[in-house]
Amino acid sequence: MFEEDEEAIDLTPLVNRFEQMLREKTELFFDVQEFEALSDYYYDSGKLNKAIKVVQYAENQHPYCASFLVKKAQYFTATDQLDEAENELEKLESLSPGSLELFMARAAVQSKQGQHKKAIQFFKQALKCTDFPEDVWPLIAIEYQMLGNYELSCKYLKLTLEENPEDEIAIYNIALCYDLLEKTGEGITYFNRFVNREPYSEIAWYHLAILYAKNKEFDKAIRAVDYALLIDETFMAAYYEKARMLERTFRYQEAADTYQDSFEFDGPTGFSYYKIALCYLKMHKAQKAKSYLTKAVHEDPDLDEAFYELALLYDEDNESQEAIFNIKKSIELDPDNWDYLFTSAEIHKRAGLLNEAEVIYQKLIEEGYMDPEVFIDYAELLFDLCEFEEGMEILYKGVQLNPDSADMQYRLSGYLYTLQESDEANIYFEKALHLDPDRRLFFFELFPKLRQNPAIRHMLSKFGKA
To answer: pLDDT-based confidence at 1, cuts 50/70/90?
Structure first.
């Protein structure tokens, strides 16, 4: 009966009449049902202040109707006006003590205030007043989640899903609880039982797939996500999840094809082209990867990761201008990404633009980027520019900031040997051996003549690495 009455209300003239009343600063009569429809309309449209104004008019015309106090408390809670919400609930308690609406509204206020235990108490009181506990159980579950009590959250989510197996939010939340509890096996058991009862729940199959993947049971995971796609072939998240699983099992061509399959229903996106490109990179198909990366940045000009990968590919092909263009684009989009800056320095250096590379290295160090490779590469660049003293200063600074980096110690010792500073070089070489004796092999690739150095041979014999 209520649904028929609600459908009978034509909201457009009703809204127009209310808006005209506000403009003309008059007061027209609306019955309870019309006020409720108006307040719901404004609330659902995100116009909370207007919804509050509706119930204020409604209270004046229908002062003994408790539903407007409930709505007003709800709207005040949504806008964080919690003291005002409490005031409305005090009025509601005098009109309708011990009502379901009162307990639900009080629970919402307590939840908003972060008082989740009190919220649960009010929700449990609400359970005693309702014929539809399935409307309250998921709210209790959320409060337990906020308290970090995922076991009890699971309990109420299970009750919810027994009564309402189509509640997608509850399905998501129970999967999240099993994940946070790190009870993947129990989650798999639960979802297997669930899909046996509800075999057409694509959301349940999807979460079962994720749990299987977390358990590294990838064949079962892919089979489960295939069921989800069989039920709903437009389920975009399932395509992406299946592709990720295929990538994790090194089935890169199938992964690329799965991303491509999603285009039929959602169209291509820059990110999907980017993911396809990464699959081709893993298959060492650089030209196909470059083609899809180009499509990615065309589709989404703000996709810095795609510009970055393009820069790397062009750099590998010695196409310096294209590499520099793309690395600059990625930095423009994410100027705080140090990896992009470091790569930019390397690209400029390989392109012979040494002064430009030097500026970038300086910026990295000034901004606190302490990766040993920056200091090593920058020092080499300075040596190439015949700025030997400045290069050594950078190496010393790198060692000071990275005392546990064997590569830094080896590199500094190598240059000190070259400069005939043998005593100091011996100190750093021995430190490097302590940190990582196996990296000495890379050291000798850089400084092959030092294999015959007597001091080095003596230290190696001490370490049993001669």
So the answer is: very low
